[in-house]
Amino acid sequence: MTKGTLRVLMIAPTPYFSDRGCHVRIYEEARALTKLGHEVCIVTYHLGRDMPGVRVVRTPRVPWYNKLEAGPSWHKPYLDVLLLWKSLALARSFRPHLIHAHLHEGALIGSVLKLLLRIPLLFDYQGSLTGESLNHGFFHKKSPLTYVFKQFERFINRLADVIITSSDQGRQELIRDWGMAAGRVTNLIDGVDTEIFCPHSQSESRRELGIPDNVKVVVYLGLFNRYQGVDLLLDAISLLKRELPDVRFLLMGFPDEEYRKKAAEMHIDDVIVFTGRVRYERAAFFLSAGDLAVSPKLAQTEANGKLFNYMACGLPTVAFDSHINREILGDAGIYVEHGNTAAFAEAIVASLCDCGGMASLSEKVRDRAIVMHSWDSRSRQLELVYRSMLSPGHDTDFEKNYRSAKKH
User: Fold this and answer.
1) Which of 4, 119, 319, 367 has the fewest beta carbons under 10 Å from its own?
2) 167-200 pLDDT per residue, tens
3) Is residue 166 a contact partner of residue 25, using CB atoms and an 8 Å limit?
4) How far apart are the C-alpha atoms of 5 and 402, rounded to whole Å?
């Protein structure tokens, strides 16, 4: 099948939608495909909220499970059994042309549907299952579970017809470290809806947040945990408070209770505004309160979706020097040595003091978001991947079919 409307069954083993990076990718992919005229249905857990413009079907409610945060859980196996059951039931009426599975659990569930329905399976890879479990402290590197998870992950990686990755580094890791055939893996970097994420009135945003107009504001939007670098960011704020006492730090995300307490213990809570979880629809408005954005993410096996939102809102960004960050920001980023707290703080000071440079970077990152990272172009790339999978011979030569589809 190479023409016409496609019916895509997306499997999302996560409490979608919970206003975080993985969920933003799922939503924006689905909505962009819908704009192209395709039918997309997301099947997911009972938790989360529906977003406009995309059909969502949920598993039966499990009253004792209410975890919205990212990370592994021992509850996942039975939740995924429910998700498999719901996916099978939905597939009978929806009759999908292909399965688009997010995360490793989704790929495992999708492989069952692939066998039963005899349709192709695409695995949307957003990072290593083992790496994520280690980052969240689910088990330690020397634990026997590390070996078990690695073998399980290696098995799941081979179940899909095609894997798309959210970064080129992810693609290279699958080929180099997991032994995947290069022809089965293609890079579909994250994107951003540049109509939703765009600069708003800074004064109005600050007024709602209770931040004065006459101060500089540094913003962070994302999950609150150690591997996202939030602990390091608080250490940097402690250094900066002495040098730039008039700067305010707007920290948006969840779960933030532990970090509110830590900030108070460090005596830096007076220069920080915590918002808690910010809804996707309001994120651009609050980001517009900032003069500078930061991404101190330490994990190097995952994409960094917040950068796209920063860019689309015209925010110059300080980030660690990594392949993933450079892939997204290009020459419009402000880079520092990975994990260096002092260098991170120094880069914030230098940036805030360079008004001309900041104004130039603001325009540059917004332009880069529109030209290079819009979901309008990403969705067409994804459509080409779908059609190449549905072309005769895709099982034996995906790359050849994908290149042929791009030419036409």
Assistant:
1) 4
2) 888 899 999 999 999 999 999 999 999 999 999 9
3) yes
4) 18
